[in-house]
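Most newcomers find our protein records easier to grasp once they have seen one. To make this concrete, we reproduce a full record directly below:

===
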Amino acid sequence: MTTRTAPSATALYDIPGPAARRRHRAYGIVSTALILALFGWIVYLLFDTGQFTAAKWTPFTYKGIQELLLRGLGNTLKAFAYAAVLSLLLGAVLAVGRLSEHRIVRWIATLFVEFFRAMPVLVMIFFIFVALKVQPLPALVTGLTLYNGSVLAEVFRTGINSVERGQREAAYALGMRKTHVMTYVLAPQAVRAMLPTIISQLVVALKDTSLGYLITYEEFLHAGKLIASNLDYDLPFIPVVMVISPIYIGMCMLLSWFATWVAERERRSPKMKAVDVAPAEPGTLLPGVQ
């Protein structure tokens, strides 16, 4: 006959007893029921307002509409690719400037970062498009680059400063120059800590590409707006949202999955594994000593 040992309490909380477990189970059942009821109510409203009628979903069966959406999706990915690469490069340059030993360089980089990080993205995009007469795609990419690059500069700077000071001092003691210390010692260690935040900011950049429709850039949301405002299809606004939203969410989830995959790959990299060291053997400690 075996006896069950009661779980012991931890320093953070007490193990719930039978009454508390029943109460938590009831909370879970009630919460699930409320969520299902809310979901059912939303579905009922969609049916009641005729959002699933054939007239509203017919546009998506036409080849021209499908090509419009695919072209818009391609333009969104193109704008994001340009903005992501340029934001990473600008962020790295600004981070180096903020870490510079020269005061004037550090001040200029700090002023640049603080200004464009505080400036709304939409204001920058409109200013570049309207005041500077720049084409929609360069205007959108420039606005996204200035904002996200400034934010990433702070991410890079914080990540590099988070590396233990002893790593830097040991590298300098070996005779390495500052550029080599930054490239081969600090940056590789900082990137692993910064990766989740970098990916989160890139997700923000991906979502902000939807601002391009305000300056007539034919991206994914702009294509959806053209379909939703079509009177011939009874203004299918909700169907367009139900088609476009999962694609945006899927792209963001794919980006997050890629970050997780890179982090796991870094942890499994042979360069990160410990090196076996031969055990010490008795021998001569000092020359000439027996």
Summary: The two ends are 65 Å apart (CA to CA). DSSP finds ten helices and no strands in the chain.
